Amino acid sequence: MKTYVIGDVHGRRAQLRQLLELIPRDGERDMLVLLGDLVDRGEEIPGVVADVLALQQAQPDRVLCLRGNHEQMLLDFADKGELLWLHVAVGSEQTIRQYTGAAIQIRTEHDFVKLRQTFNEAVPPAHLEFLRGLPLWHEDEYALYVHAGLKADQHPRDTPAQTLLWARDQNFFKHYTGKPCVFGHTPVPLLPLRGRIGRHGIYISHSAIGLDTGFSDTSPLSCLQLPDLILYQSFPDGHTANFHLTSFMPDPLRAMQKTATLAQPIAEV
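Below the sequence we write its predicted C-alpha cells.
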C-alpha cells in the first residue's frame, strides 16, 4: 500500500483533476489523503467539493480529506454566524459567489442575516454535511497527517483543534522529530528557508513535510507519494512534473523510504 497526500487545493479543480490523473494510484490498495482547504480563492470551489465528495463516496476506506481552517471558518459562518470567514484576506467571496451567484454586499445587520440565509440555502446539503464530517487528523504506518501542525511532539489526538487547524509554529517547522508529519496551511515561501526543497517548492525538515506550495498564477498543486517520496505536481498552465526525492533526506524520512521497493528515478516531464 502507498499513500498519496495532496496539499491545499483552494478551488483549483482543473489542477486537482490533472494531478489525480498523473499519480499512479491503485484505487483498490492505495490511500489518498487531502490536507484540507478545498474551499476559497479558486475558480471552481463547488466543483472541487463535489469531486472530492464523489471520490470519498466511491472509496470511503481509501479516500480521506482533512478539515482545514478555511472549512472551519465556512462552517462557523454557516452554523453559528461568525464573521471571520468574511474577512477580505480569506477569499470567501469566491466561495459565496460561486455557490449563490451573487457577490458579498453587507451594509446593514439585515444584509448579513440575508447573506447567511442565502448561502445556507444555496449550498447543497450534501456539501455541508461532507464538510462537517471532515476529521482533523489521520495516521497510517508511514506518517501523521494534519492541516497545520502539531504542538511540540504531541500526537494529533492530544493536540488542540486550534493547533491542528491554525498553527504556524516555528518550533514545529524547524525542530519536530517525531513520526513523520505531513502538513499544509502555511505556504512553503513562508516556511523557514533551510527546509525548502529547491525548485520543487515543498518543505522538509527533520520529520516535518510541508505540502502547501502556494496559490498564485504559477503555483503548482502538489502530491507526495509515501513511502517512496515521489513528488507529483500540476501547474496552472497545464504542464506537470514529477521528481524522486532522494538527496539530502533527513534520517526519519530516509528510514521510511527504505521500506518501499524503489522504482527507477523519475525524470521531470
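Residues 3-68+135-257 form a domain with the Purple Acid Phosphatase; chain A, domain 2 fold (CATH 3.60.21.10).
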